[in-house]
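User: Could you go from structure to sequence for me? I need the amino acid at each position, not a summary. Structure tokens:
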């Protein structure tokens, strides 16, 4: 029973780490990255779809993203989605492909991006703490129902805390790496 709670908690910690990586990939740095646009929602065929399902996305140079829609009729819709996003990049097209020239970030914009990274990191940490509390509450409930002993409950709590500490350390490292990437000129 304790193992079920721990296994579920460990799985949610892995998901939290992956969620942060995915979330931070959308934050713009000084370099072009397909992750900046691939999950951008585009209103296509009557439903919102991620851009990577509507076009090939490539990065031929460190400051250029090239988007080649599968259907050339989608160019205007994709351009509009890019303009409405928080990327701050104006798309240009030649009728077949959309080019996004990723400009050098100003110092002020870099600071804003770092704040955004820290904000997203803190949101995820709050979520992890809430999941830790729920796992500990589950263990306490099991003990109250006499399904496990008090010692087992304490060992389970220690294991939950160890997983939480390891996850927090991983999240901090991911955040620090992204901050360093944003600040590189």
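Assistant: Here is the amino acid at each position, in order:
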């Amino acid at each position: 029973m304790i193992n079920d709670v721990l296994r579920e908690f460990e799985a949610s910690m892995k998901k939290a780490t992956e969620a942060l990586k995915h979330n931070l990939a959308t934050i713009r740095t000084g370099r072009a990255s397909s992750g900046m646009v691939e999950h951008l929602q585009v209103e296509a065929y009557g439903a919102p779809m991620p851009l990577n399902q509507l076009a090939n996305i490539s990065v031929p140079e460190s400051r250029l993203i090239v988007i080649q829609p599968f259907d050339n009729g989608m160019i205007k819709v994709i351009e509009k989605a890019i303009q409405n996003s928080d990327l701050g990049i104006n798309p240009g097209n030649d009728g077949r492909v959309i080019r996004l020239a990723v400009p050098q970030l100003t110092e002020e914009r870099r600071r804003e991006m770092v704040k955004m990274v820290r904000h997203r990191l803190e949101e995820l940490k709050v979520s992890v703490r809430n999941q830790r509390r729920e796992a500990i509450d589950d263990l306490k409930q099991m003990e109250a129902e006499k399904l496990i002993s008090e010692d087992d409950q304490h060992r389970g709590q220690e294991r939950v805390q160890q997983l939480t500490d390891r996850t927090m350390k991983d999240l901090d490292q991911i955040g620090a790496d992204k901050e360093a990437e944003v600040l590189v000129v």
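One structural detail worth keeping in mind: The first strand starts at residue 41 and ends at 44.
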